[in-house]
Amino acid sequence: REATTTLTVTGMTCASCTGRVERTLTGQPGVLNASVNLASETATVRYLPGATDPAQLARAVTESGYPTRPSE
Ligand code: 9UX
Questions:
Q1: In this predicted model, what pLDDT tens digit does every residue of 20-59 receive, in sequence order?
Q2: Domain residue spans of the chain
Q3: CA dist list (Å): 69 to 1, 24, 38
Q4: Mutation test residue for ligand 1: of 9, 16, 64, the one with most atoms within 8 Å of CB
Q5: Ligand 1 centroid – CA 28 distance (Å)
Q6: 72 falls in which pLDDT band (50, 70, 90)?
């Protein structure tokens, strides 16, 4: 019904970057909530698995200018 994924997001240098990334993520279909932490370079995303997936979310963030990689 609902899933959570964590992405590593690089290239964020100020606090407003986290807001940008959060808006990018919440603008994606199927995203319910996104919380981005500047210090730990992580984005925690709650989403509907039928509507999107972690690879697609990572691609959207990378294309917005903040490179991502799978988080361990
Ligand atoms: Mo701050 Mo981030 O001036 O793209 S918003 S560096």
A1: 999 999 999 999 999 999 999 999 999 999 999 999 999 9
A2: 3-70
A3: 25, 16, 15
A4: 16
A5: 21
A6: low
Fold of domain 3-70: Alpha-Beta Plaits (3.30.70)
Rounded to whole angstroms, how far apart are CA atoms 65 and 32? Answer: 22
Sheet holding 31-37, edge to edge: 31-37, 42-47, 3-9, 68-70
Q: In 10 A of CB 5, how many CB atoms?
A: 18
- Residue nearest ligand 1's atom 1 by CA: 14
The atom number, within ligand 1, closest to the CA of 17 reads 2
Selection from 65, 18, 16 nearest residue 40 by Cα: 18
**Whole-prediction pTM:** 0.94
C-alpha 60/C-alpha 54 separation (Å) is: 10
